[in-house]
Amino acid sequence: QFNPAIYYRSFPRVRGVYDNAYRPFRLEGVQTASFEALTQFLRNENIPLVFVNLPLSNDYLDGVRLGYERQFQQFLQARANQGTLTLVDLLEEWRWQSHLFADPSHVNRYGAREVARLIAADPRISWP
User: Fold this and answer.
1) Long-range pairs of 39-43 with CB within 8 A, sequence gap ≥ 24
2) Is residue 34 a contact partner of residue 89, using CB atoms and an 8 Å limit?
3) What b/e sequence results for 41-56 when a residue is b if at least 16 CB atoms lie within 10 Å of its CB, and e otherwise?
């Protein structure tokens, strides 16, 4: 379980402004074209798409990262509004519950169990 006081003794705290994972962030271009092609294929095959936006901890979601994540949420919500996908947005679901994370940005086995429970109980998802 993620404990910030212990975790940051071994790993540096990297602020979002220095996070290289977001440097190539764009909501247009080849990734969006690939996403659109995938959703079109699924629609043609009558296969429902459920997108689960996983939670992130408060330690991870600083102002910079949250800004990028909000843009991504809007992108996903627009697709959900078009009927392209069902969106289960858990981004801030457990923001202050470190015990459900293995590190600042990944759920642990307890968090994964809770994600599974939420998805299983979500009335928007039609299970076969």
Assistant:
1) 39/79, 39/84, 39/85, 43/84
2) no
3) eeeeeeeeeeebbbbb
Q: Please give the structure tokens belonging to residue 31.
A: 């990734």
pLDDT tens digits, one per residue of 12-66: 999 999 988 888 888 888 889 999 999 999 999 999 999 999 999 999 999 999 9
For residue 88, report the phi and psi dihedrals to the nearest 5 degrees: -110, 100
SS (H, E, C) 24-46: CCCCCCHHHHHHHHHHHHHHHCC
- Ramachandran sector of residue 29 (left: φ over 0; alpha: ψ -120 to 50; beta: rest): left
Q: How far apart are CA 56 and CA 102, in angstroms?
A: 11
CA–CA dist 74, 66 (Å, integer): 12
Query: Predicted confidence band at 122 (pLDDT cuts at 50, 70, 90)?
Result: very high
Query: Residue 4: in which H helix or E strand, if any?
Result: helix 4-10
